[in-house]
Structure formats: C-alpha cells, structure tokens
Amino acid sequence: MDDRLEALRGVPLFADLDARGLQAVAVLAREARVLAGEAIMLEGEPGDAFYVILDGTVRIEKGGRPIRSMTSGGFIGEIALLDGRPRTASAVAVSDCRLLRLGQHEFERRVDTFPEVRTKVQAAIHRRLRGPEPHTLG
Description:
Elements: H1 2-9, H2 19-28, E1 30-34, E2 39-41, E3 49-55, E4 58-62, E5 65-70, E6 75-76, H3 78-83, E7 90-93, E8 97-103, H4 104-113, H5 115-130
Antiparallel strand pairs: 1-8, 2-7, 3-6, 3-8, 4-5, 4-7
Helix pairs in contact: 1-2, 4-5
C-alpha cells in the first residue's frame, strides 16, 4: 500500500488530494504489470478502466499511427470512462510497465467523491482532444 501511495503522490492528477483522498484512491487501485509489446487498451473497445503509469513507457496510437509516448505519472483510459464512448486510442507498452488500474466503478466513485479529480481529468481530456485550454482574462 505504501508503494501505491508514494506512486500516486507523484501523479499530477492526484497532487491536490489530501492524505485521506490519496488513501481512498490507493485502496481501490490494483497494480498491473504489462510486458513490452503488449496492448494495454485498444482503440474502439469499450472503456472499462483508467490507468496510471508507475514505471515504463507507453506508446499511444490512433488509427495505427503513434501520436505520443507517456511515462511515469502519465494516465490513460480516462476519456472512455467519463464520456461513455469507445476508446479513442490504443496504448501499447514500449517497455515492461507497472501500472495502477482503477476499474470503471472505482474510478467513478473517486471522481464523484473528489470533484477536484474530475476537474483535472476533464482539463486533461480537453487538452488531449482540443489543444491547450484558453486563458481567461481578468
């Protein structure tokens, strides 16, 4: 459990959670290991989990073409969980990876309990789908 808490502390998505909130996420998260070359999720499939990358590198692909790589602290799978649409991209382990997995039910419980997590996830989705968020004046 301490390993999960320490890993989650370093994830920007959970940075503003207090110790109680971080503990609540850690309790529900399950560690998963994926070998280099294995798919973590596939474009078009239903979203059933959200993943935080603890160790390793993950390549994100859309239409079979690489669009970015992500490493420790990155997170994937949130778009399909929040909007109910099929996965918008595939994720493949470039190296052996250690991930934290939150299933759909657990993820929804966390974002409902901690609105600040929902806000951060929505901002990340906005950046990924539409580019940087506009700055507000005043």
